[in-house]
Each structure stands twice: as C-alpha cells, then as structure tokens.
Design a protein that fits this description.
By secondary structure, the protein is of the alpha/beta class. Helices cover 20% and strands 29% of the residues.
C-alpha cells in the first residue's frame, strides 16, 4: 500500500518494521492491515515470503571503527563487528540516521547508556562493543526487545533489555522528532544522541542545548546536553 505525504522515512520504518519502499515521491509500506491515520492511495497484495525478501539485499557497512552487518557476511579485517539480524525490528545499520548515531557514539567517552526505542538493538550492541557500560535497551515493542536480546547474545555483549526507562549518563534515540521532543524531558539522562529527523529539523526542548551535529543524505543527528 502506498502512503502519500511527506512522512519521514525513519518514522515509517519505526511504525512498519516489515518494510518501507520509496516509490514515485511516496512511500510504500508493507503491513498485514491498512495503516490507521495515513492516506492510503493504493493497495495491493504481495507474494508470500515478502517478510524476508529484504535479506537478499542487506549488506554490511563500515562506520568509523565499526562494521555493522548481517550474520551471513564476514566483517573486514581491523573493524569491530556489530553483527545484526534485525528480523522484523527496525535497524540494520544501513540507514543514514543509524550511521549518524554510530558516528557520534564514537566521538564521546564511554559511560552508562540508555537506548530508547532500541529496535533491533544495533545501537545498544555497538555501544557495548565501544566500551559503554552498563547498557540498557528500551522499547515498547515486544518484538524489538526479543530481537535485541538475540543480537546481544550473538555478539557476546551484556545488555539489559528493559520494559521501562532507567537513569543513565547518555541516551540514544533514533526515533521521530516529535517523539524525541516528548521523551527528552522524561528520560533521566544528562546528555542524548538523537536522530530520526531531517537536517532541516532539530529537537527544541527547554534546557537542552546542541553540542554537536552530524549530517548525511539529508538526515541529521545531534549530541544534546541538558543545562539548567
């Protein structure tokens, strides 16, 4: 089904982890039922097996010292492997917002970390590999929590998979802008790496100031700090 309008790709991927495709200026989303709250311009049935067809096109990427890729690929020599099988959860490492978050993670000192909206757990696993501890991963989607547990085990890292947020020094939030703005006042952290929005946008929340920004392919990620 094709969803019209200028909805941000990151939000669609979060809402429809089964798959999103850009077609003729709109986005096609893969879902079992028509999405509520969207203008559906066209709908059609797809062949059986569409849920896993993306695997044939999923390739690993290198971001700084990290390599993020699927378990069926070998990581390049000299990189730190972050092996991610997203299953039905958002987060392969290939999207610009994920890559931007990983770039900023490598520019800050490792500390305690909370991954809000963890999806596949790619940011949590990468943080643990970079020396952040303890690492907590939170999501409201039970599928995402299960996938994060599996990917943590695959990578041999300790991640606390959480059903509610907890205090940390740093949060990472690769979710939609309005969700970032709504959560920042509620998450008990002093700094945050945020993404999931276009480079024309930025979170605007009282007390939070931008310290650094990274941009790629029209998307942005920010390192924010709370200053009273």
């Amino acid at each position: 089904m094709i969803v019209g309008g200028e909805a941000e790709l990151a939000l669609l991927l979060h809402l429809f982890p089964e798959g999103v495709e850009e077609l003729d200026g709109a986005f096609a989303v893969y879902a079992d039922e028509p999405p509520l709250g969207f203008d559906v311009l066209e709908g059609e049935d797809v062949e059986d097996g569409w849920e896993d067809a993306w695997r044939a096109f999923h390739r690993g990427v290198t971001i700084g010292k990290l390599w993020v890729g699927p378990p069926w690929e070998q990581h390049p020599v000299g990189t730190v492997p972050v092996v991610i099988d997203p299953g039905r959860a958002f987060g392969t490492g290939a999207h610009a917002t994920t890559r931007l978050c990983l770039e900023l993670l490598q520019e800050v000192e490792p500390t305690s970390l909370l991954d809000v909206g963890c999806g596949s757990g790619v940011l949590s696993v990468a943080a643990a590999k970079l020396g952040f501890t303890p690492v907590g991963a939170f999501d409201i989607d039970e599928v995402a929590l299960g996938v994060t547990r599996a990917n943590a085990a695959e990578n041999g890292v300790d991640i606390d998979v959480l059903e509610e947020v907890r205090p940390a020094d740093l949060a990472v939030m690769n979710i939609a802008l309005e969700v970032v703005e709504g959560l920042l006042p509620k998450v008990p952290v002093g700094r945050a790496i945020t993404s999931g929005y276009l480079d024309r946008d930025e979170p605007r929340v009282a007390g939070w100031q931008r310290v650094a920004r990274a941009v790629r392919d029209g998307w942005a990620a920010d390192l924010l700090e709370f200053r009273q």
